[in-house]
Amino acid sequence: MTIKNNLSPAQILFNLIKTRRSIRRYTTDPIPPETIRHLLEAATWAPSAHNRQPWRFAVLTRAADIKRLAEAMGARLRADRSADGDAPADIERDVARSYARLTGAPVVIIVCLSMADMDSYPDPRRSRNEWVMAAQSTAMAAQNLLLLAHAEGLAACWICAPLFAPDLVRETLALPVDWEPQGLITLGRPAETRDKARLPIDTKIKFL
């Protein structure tokens, strides 16, 4: 991304936030390991509850691993939608779209949380709140990664599908038992451009 040199750091950051897009098509160019590590380091500087840093990242760069995950998730998607009684043709289009989005990316990062270092409570209310704090922390880490990827001229897309099959994702990739998949990020060099809009800010805020 090209940014004019006369902008202040705040203006540069605001421009990055406003111009980031969810890109779903990528070139076949590989992403250097050092670039991936740089993005992940940015992720780990996000705020976190109690500074426990509950985020975990599984990085897939081999086509065979990405394909295996895409096939497993596609099979689950097909089973879920079939149980809903959806039309077979619609299901297959959805499965094919999901498969293409994953296998078309040179890098797939599974974003997980772990409760291993979070506080534990004897009651459901506080336990649930502690888990939500871990999920919020992990989401902020993912946003850091997305913004730096954009600043580096890369493209990325956050996909929530692992939330619907966390055990399947964990088992397919042999992740540690305490890693709870929250989503995945496809990453690569952009092969498309996209635009987006936002509703007027006044429809979303209230000053008290």
Written description of the protein model:
This protein is an alpha+beta fold and 208 residues long. It has a domain at 29-62 and 108-192: NADH Oxidase (3-Layer(aba) Sandwich). The chain is 46% helix and 13% strand. The protein has a 4-stranded antiparallel beta sheet with strand order 1-2-4-3, sandwiched between helices. Helix 2 (33-43) crosses helix 5, helix 3 packs antiparallel against helix 4 (88-103) and helix 3 packs antiparallel against helix 6 (166-173). The relative contact order is 0.21.
Average pLDDT number: 96
Q: Strand-residue fraction?
A: 5-15%
Strand and helix order: HHEHHEHEHE
Q: Please, what is the CATH homologous superfamily of the domain at 29-62 and 108-192?
A: NADH Oxidase
